[in-house]
Write a structure and sequence with these properties.
single chain; mainly alpha; 4% strand
Length: 266
């Protein structure tokens, strides 16, 4: 085992330990508003990391998918417990879906890109061609994503009925999930793409704060607290992207990059 390999494992081990310690600390104080915001951002970032690993990890997919399901279920259970939602079936279900659905969709999208024509994969820096950029966003992609969110917003505003809680929960999931996925995939692209990540992250991280303003558009908070709700969601999304970016930059420092081309692992 080389010194470089030991260094990489140490970095990843320290990263996992930091996530665990932060999660325990924030969960123990989750009833405080500041701790709750940080903890929710950490939960979303961890869920995103699990989805990314499930889709692009170097171990066999038959092993990764059950592990992602088990870890997501455990994370959702911890989240429900910390939020004290077990006594409310509807709230517990929504909490589980808000954690598990983005993870599953990210895993599915990346698996599809990995097994499809693009053959998206992780590769060590020494094996990466400078021209094999693996995951790119174009103006068309951004336009389509913006259009999809705009359609959801328009339909939701017209059809929202306060007396139907099921519809309210469904609408919350329908708006929250694509926003989380957009932020996490964009952060993945920015942190692990070929080339220097500084300029990409300089665009993605501020945008994450803006994307966080979309979900509270549907909340039924009183007017006085509406601004506070927007600020809280914006901070959660921004912190989520920041935590995810820092974690992915640790992997980047270990030599991993996101590329496309022939894959050597299933």
């Amino acid at each position: 085992m080389s010194a470089n390999q030991i260094s990489s494992k140490t970095k990843i081990g320290l990263l996992v330990a930091a996530h665990f310690a932060a999660g325990v600390s924030l969960a123990s104080a989750v009833q405080a508003d500041i701790a709750r915001v940080g903890w929710l951002a950490l939960v979303l970032a961890d869920a995103g990391l699990m989805g990314i690993w499930g889709g692009l990890g170097t171990t066999r997919i038959a092993w990764r998918v059950p592990m992602v399901f088990a870890m997501t279920s455990a994370l959702s259970a911890i989240c429900i417990t910390a939020m004290r939602a077990w006594d409310n079936a509807g709230r517990a279900t929504v909490t589980f879906v808000l954690v598990a659905l983005p993870t599953a969709l990210i895993c599915g999208v990346l698996c599809r890109l990995r097994l499809g024509r693009r053959r998206l994969r992780f590769a060590r820096l020494s094996n990466v061609s400078p021209t094999c950029e693996g995951f790119q966003f174009s103006i068309r992609h951004l336009f389509l994503a913006t259009t999809a969110v705009a359609i959801i917003l328009a339909i939701g505003r017209e059809m929202r009925t306060d007396s139907i809680s099921v519809w309210a929960a469904t609408l919350a999931v329908a708006t929250f999930t694509p926003c989380v996925i957009m932020v996490e995939l964009a952060t993945l692209w920015a942190a692990l793409g070929i080339g220097r990540p500084a300029l990409r992250l300089a665009a993605v991280l501020p945008t994450a704060f803006v994307v966080g303003l979309i979900p509270p558009f549907y909340t039924e908070e009183p007017v006085r607290s509406k601004l506070a709700t927007f600020v809280i969601f914006s901070v959660i999304f921004g912190l989520q992207a920041t935590i995810l970016a820092i974690s992915l930059l640790v992997f980047r420092s270990c030599g991993w990059r996101l590329v496309s081309g022939d894959r050597s692992t299933p």
